[in-house]
Design goal:
The complex is a heterodimer of chains A (292) and B (375). Chain A has 292 residues and is α/β, with parallel strands linked by helices. Helices cover 20% and strands 28% of the residues of chain A. Chain B has two domains: 227 residues, no CATH class; 125 residues, no CATH class. Classes of the chains: A alpha/beta (292), B alpha+beta (375).
């Protein structure tokens, strides 16, 4: 395996660089690839020069030359490593097929970090309830890492995680570790189980009544399929968590990532630049309108 | 500078064009092509479609020749300045595979130095809107191509003294008087133009021509025709509370009604001088070793525009029309502090179904608060 050629930045005419810069990727090496489930991989990429510490909940645009570019949430915390960035990717289309076929040492385009973040530092002193559905655990993982790293600064901490089947569960080794963390309520459920499963069965929202928290003093972080978030938000509101303290991460067609190409609009919001993480009260009027 | 107004005799107009060319500008102005008046390279005054009048109605555009000696009796055709300042297809960069690494080459071209001649108030108002979209957005970014093209461009406007049936700039506050962007504003009289420099750059273009000063009578007479056009323009949009009106009517049954006529062809977004949505296009060579990334125009009427999590979020035509209209007249204010519509009327003329935004907005206002039945 030959050494990758560095991006030839010297070739770029200085006047044109800023012109393209908003959508110009850096090219970085794949440092590690891990298969998580039958359709999902985590890849660790080298951190580009000049890349700022990202915040939990932000995303990168990953670019496979000749195939295309997709937004992928960042699955690692800047606390964990200053040299590598993890992305958990489900194989669903042409670009993610390419991204999940990468080998260690190959080169891929990356630009970021983009978007708003989970209010991790802002939630100190509060109870924090994290609700993750499916791949929604990936953008929440860095938040959980950061919450646990400063465990004493928070009140009750809970992670409610649901997947379709036991085989779809992500980060199973890490879930095992988290299970042994004292004072951390970890509840896992699957929609459909097989004989090997001895845990809870049902959608993730069915776990909400089982956790202990003080609704008035709780921050909820919610990410998953939109239908799951709808029900999770409803149930959290019913428990008495204020709308402004329920955070959701929305997904739309993100292409430019800088609030410009227009694809990701939800009412007045550009999901890529104003979001993807929103306090629910900011988007409540638009979230419930079909096909908006 | 603001005070001095000149006379440009029509027989000296060619001198102005030659002057611009000599100064290194690529001159663009209205010319007749394929049965419509469009902006294109303008070398000679003979290309200006003198005496042609456009008849525009919902879904209809026709040119007829009138007998007057006026030069600019037409109103804007399908093309706006968007095509020049924000090209519909633009190369960004090229990537060549090299073992396990890549070589990157930036391919975005340097924009020409344009002089836009004979452009109208609505198109210049649209440029002012685009400036907010493309330049220094909330500190996020600037679109380099647009910013460079815009910085270099010279705008020589003509104020409209007539209007098409589809025009509604006066109710949008964008025309026919030119309030934005122009370096020189021209007002037409029988055998001459009254020329008002509006910027240093505009004054610099006029100075070498050593023009005589216009009289106040000439200026007032020329202005009179413009004011008359403004006063006579019948089509209008009631902007009262327009943002909130639309956002509280997202479930109005009118969206379904208009969707029975809308064919989602995207013409309205293509001719709109402010619509900015774009996609990326990946162009590969046969070996697969080289890829070019381009920026290409897109439209919220295309079904795949909203494709996310494996589905098209806006599946119905009603939802796509609603996105377009509410973006233009409501959420644009949230995003950019101004309306996204400049009242040029192009979307009305070039809609093959003859859908009229002004009528749709009136219909929403008339049925304010109606909700379609929820399943």
């Amino acid at each position: 395996m030959g050494e990758p050629t560095a991006q030839e930045a010297a070739d770029l005419p200085a006047a044109i660089m800023p012109a393209v810069a908003p959508v110009l990727p850096s090219f970085v090496r794949v440092l590690r690839v891990r298969k998580d489930t039958h359709d999902t991989w985590t890849i660790w990429l080298e951190r580009p020069d000049g890349y700022p510490d990202h915040r939990a909940g932000q995303f990168n645009m990953l670019y496979a030359p000749g195939v295309g570019e997709v937004p992928i949430s960042i699955a690692s915390s800047a606390r964990e490593s200053r040299t590598r960035i993890a992305h958990t990717i489900r194989r669903v289309g042409a670009v993610t097929r390419r991204l999940t076929s990468l080998r260690r040492g190959e080169t891929i385009g990356l630009r970021g970090p983009y978007g708003s973040a989970w209010p991790v530092a802002e939630s100190q002193g509060a109870d924090v309830v994290v609700v993750a559905g499916g791949l929604g655990l990936a953008p929440l993982r860095p938040a959980i890492v950061e919450l646990l790293a400063r465990r004493k600064r928070y009140g009750a901490l809970a992670l409610l995680y649901g997947a379709r089947t036991p085989a779809d569960l992500l980060y199973t080794a890490e879930l095992g570790k988290w299970r042994s963390v004292l004072d951390f309520q970890l509840l896992v459920t699957v929609d459909r189980a097989d004989r090997s499963w001895h845990g809870h069965i049902g959608v993730v929202t069915t776990l909400i009544p089982a956790v202990t928290f003080d609704p008035q003093n709780t921050v909820a972080l919610v990410c998953g399929p939109e239908i799951m978030m709808r029900f999770a938000v409803r149930d959290l509101l019913d428990r008495g968590v204020p709308a402004r303290r329920i955070y959701v991460s929305l997904e739309r067609n993100l292409q430019c990532a800088v609030g410009f190409c227009g694809h990701c609009q939800l009412g007045p919001k550009f999901i890529c630049a104003d979001g993807p993480v929103f306090a629910f009260d900011e988007i409540a009027p638009y979230f419930s309108v079909r096909e908006l | 500078m603001a005070g001095t107004v000149y006379v440009l005799p029509k027989e000296r107009f060619q001198e102005l064009l030659d002057r611009l060319k000599a100064d290194g500008y690529q001159v663009v102005g209205p010319v007749l092509r394929d049965g419509a008046i469009v902006y294109d390279d303008l070398h000679s005054v003979d290309q200006i479609p003198r005496g042609w009048v456009d008849q525009q109605e919902p879904g209809r555009y026709q040119l007829v020749h009138d007998r007057s000696q006026r030069w600019f009796t037409f109103t804007p055709g399908p093309l706006s300045l968007k095509r020049f300042l924000f090209p519909p297809s633009l190369s960004l960069f090229r990537v060549r595979r090299n073992g396990d690494g890549v070589q990157l080459q930036v391919t975005m071209p340097e924009p020409p130095r344009y002089a836009f001649v004979g452009v109208r108030a609505c198109d210049l108002a649209a440029v002012a809107v685009q400036d907010r979209v493309y330049i220094d957005r909330q500190g996020l970014f600037s679109d380099g191509y647009y910013a460079a093209a815009r910085r270099k461009a010279l705008f020589i406007a003509v104020e409209c003294q007539s209007y098409a049936a589809t025009c509604f700039c006066s109710s949008m506050g964008t025309g026919p008087e030119v309030n934005h962007t122009a370096d020189v504003v021209l007002l037409e009289l029988e055998d001459r133009f009254v020329a008002q420099p509006r910027s240093e750059r505009g004054a610099a273009v006029l100075t070498p021509l050593a023009l005589e000063q216009a009289t106040d009578e000439e200026l007032q007479r020329a202005k009179h025709y413009v004011r008359q056009a403004a006063a006579d323009m019948e089509r209008q949009v009631d902007l009262t509370d327009i943002r909130d009106l639309l956002l509280r009517n997202l479930e109005n049954p009118r969206w379904d009604q208009v969707a029975t006529r809308c064919i989602a062809c995207a013409n309205c977004t293509m001719v709109c001088p402010t619509c900015f949505c774009f996609s990326f296009q990946e162009v590969t060579d046969l070996t697969g070793n080289e890829a070019e990334r381009r920026r290409v125009v897109d439209s919220c009427f295309n079904p795949e525009f909203s494709y996310a999590f494996g589905v098209e979020v806006r599946q119905s035509v009603a939802s796509r029309y609603r996105q377009w209209l509410t973006h233009k007249f409501a959420t644009w204010y949230d995003q950019f502090g101004v309306s996204g519509c400049v009242g040029c009327g192009r979307c009305i003329t070039w809609c093959p179904a003859g859908i009229d935004v002004t009528e749709e907005l009136s219909a929403i206002r008339a049925s304010d608060g109606s909700r379609k039945e929820q399943l």
